[in-house]
Structure formats: structure tokens, C-alpha cells
Amino acid sequence: MKSVTVIGASLAGLYAARALRAQGYDGHLTIVGAEPHRPYDRPPLSKEFLTAPASAEGDADPAAEGPLALTDTEELAGLDAEWLLGTRATALDTRHRAVRLDTGRTLTTDGIVLTTGAAPRRLPGPAPDGSHTLRTLDDARALRADLARGGPTRVVVIGGGFIGAEVAASCAALGHQVAVVEAAPLPLVPQLGESMAELCARLHGDHGVALLTGTGVRGLRAGADGRVTAVELADGRLLSADVVVTGIGVRPATDWLEGSGLPLGDGVRCDAGCVTPIPAIVAAGDVAHVAGARAEHWTSATEQAATAVHNLLAGRTARTHRALPYFWSDQYGVRIQFAGHRRPGDVPRIVEGSPDDRSFLACYERDGRTTALLALNRPRPFARLRRELARAAQPAPTG
């Protein structure tokens, strides 16, 4: 294999490039990224970056962006890659493994790693000034500037998932008046189950953030100047707002692959080794639908990238991705960590700490067996049990 192209200069894209070089690939490497930025860390965008000091104009202190970088000059030189940043892939000819770019250029390559990630879902209708999504560094810069316009701001966050909760926590820490709107009866029930989701939802009230559940959003209202003034709820209520942040999930960035012949459906469909039906094309990260599931978490992106590249270089599925699902979220000074495979009906049992202190460790159990873990501010015991759970989840050796 003389040339490999990574489409998506994301976390997964960077880890794919690292894995290629680490696994001995010494051919031409091209990395195509829609954003103009080198790979950066997204999780801090809703937390440390949003709350970092700003100038009078609302611009980020340059020191706040420094820690976001995932690579440095020395590593960039070692990767020896051609970086095409600020460039979008617009079509893929799988037969000839040719990638068409929005610059008019076409790249023909021996191997392709798809790491285009996902894009935020948006509300229907117009998006007035002051309304935001938070996915990219530029999104975070724009939100920071709005929050720094002067004095306490009325912020409405639409969506009570992890991103929404983290943004709400950051805005509350900055002194803004915050409300979270969640269409479900309770945020995070699919991930945590009802009882544990209820405990996590209490964090909002602990910090003066209003949580409105069981209602969707009909649309946004704007004033004569085109700036958002209110959020209209599905039940007819109006919430006054100076800034609105929509965090209602993401969709995998596969539009450009329509008509390519690759199997699509909630991502690029791959086998357990992150390999598509065309062995020279693999996928990793938020865009990859691996063995029937798609994961949107930092750990999955990094681990899948190594597996995908191993199989790309092998020309077949020689290794599968079997890592235990794991994610974390930082909200209101509380670190929430989850690992495992929770299914409806699994019973959570608190084994350490107390929910009243917002610090505990819980095991989800089924038929006397631990299936998943949840911790609030218990990182060390969580890490120990996570390792034990991961070992138990490994298939038994054969023969």
C-alpha cells in the first residue's frame, strides 16, 4: 500500500495517522480536514474553554486554546503527512478509491480511513443571532463571545444530555441565569436508567439551574434586530433568552458518501474490525457504525482508529474492536463516569459513598453479575472496578 488518505482531521483521524506510522506504514499519508484547525480536543470546549478568562471583546485568552492541541510541531514532522485543512471531501468513487474535494482536486489513493465524525442536529426553522450549537472550536469561540457581551445573561440550553448539561454547568459557573429544556421525562435515562439519571439530574437544581422536562421546543423567537429573545416550548410556554444553545444530539457526517456504494445507516456500517465491505476502506470514531452500534465517545474514537488501521494494512479483518464502552462527563464540579453494557432491567446498587453527597459508586447487576458501573466523584475505585469489568468481558481463550 503506497498511499493512504485519512478523511477527517479529528481525534480519530489523528490517532489513525499515529497508528499507521506506529504499525510501520511508510508510504504517502494525506489527511483531509473540513476545519482549518489542526486536531484538537473537543471535550474541554463545553467546560474549561468556555469558562476560561476572556478579553473585553469576548475573545479567548490564547492560553485557553493551547491545551486543546492534540499534537505538536515535533509530532507533525514525525507523521510526515500532507495536511489539507479547510477542505471538504464531497464524493467518493469506491471503485477507483478516488476522493473528490471541494477545491476541485481529486485524490486517488490505495487505502482510505473515514473519520469525518458527526455534525450537531439543529432545530427546524431559522437560527437567529444568539443561537448556537457546540461542536467545533469556532462554535465555542462564538458562544464565548456571546456570553461575554456584558453582565449576567439568560441562557436556555435545549437538550439535557452530556453536552447540554456541561454547557449549563459552565454558564452557571459564569454567573448566568440558566434553564435546561429536555423533551424526555428525565435526561440521560437511555444511558443510565431512571434511578441513576434522577440522581444526576439533581445536580442542576443544586446549582440554581432550572430543569424543564417532558416538553419539546416549537421554535425560537427573535426581535427586530434578528437576535433571539425567547424559546417557545411545545406546550406553549415562552422562556426569555439572550443566548440559546441547542444540544439535541448529532448525526454522523455521511452525506458526502451518498451514492458511493458504501453501506450507510446511522454511520458507515462496518464489521467488528471497523472494516467496510471494501477492505481498503475502513472507518473509526463518531462516523463508524461498528458491528451494529455507533459510539460517540473519546475512548472509542482512539481505540477504533488503531483497530481500523491494523486491518487496513492487513487487507482483511485480522483484529476486532472489543473494548468495554466508557465515557465521562464533568458537570458542576462533579465527574460522572460510566463503563459497561447496561440494559433495561439491570438493577443499580450503590456500593460506596452516598447520593446525598453527590459522590458514590454504583454497580449495575443482572442475574448476580455486574454489567456496568457508574461513579460520581469516585475516580479511583471506579478505575479499579472498570479494569475488573473489562477483564470479565474478554472472551475466554480457546483451544
Q: Could you characterize the architecture of this molecule?
A:
This protein has 399 residues and is of the alpha/beta class. It has ten helices and 25 strands. The protein has helices spanning 11-22, 48-51, 62-65, 73-79, 137-147, 162-173, 189-192, 194-206, 298-314, 379-393; strands at 3-7, 28-33, 81-85, 89-93, 98-101, 106-108, 111-114, 118-120, 131-132, 154-158, 177-182, 210-213, 217-222, 228-233, 238-240, 243-246, 250-252, 268-270, 281-283, 288-290, 326-331, 334-340, 347-354, 359-366, 369-376. The strands form seven sheets. The protein has a five-stranded parallel β-sheet, covered by helices on one side. The longest helix has 17 residues, at 298-314. The chain is globular and about 60 Å long. The model has no long low-confidence stretch (mean pLDDT 94).
What average pLDDT do the residues reach? 94
- Strand arrangement, major sheet: 3-2-1-7-19
Label the overall shape. globular
- Give the number of DSSP strands: 25
- Which percent range describes the beta-strand content? 25-35%
Helix content: 10-25%
The computed structural class is alpha/beta
Number of helices: 10
Structural Rg: 22 Å
Distance between the termini: 34 Å
Low-confidence stretches: none
For the biggest sheet, the summary is: 5 strands, parallel
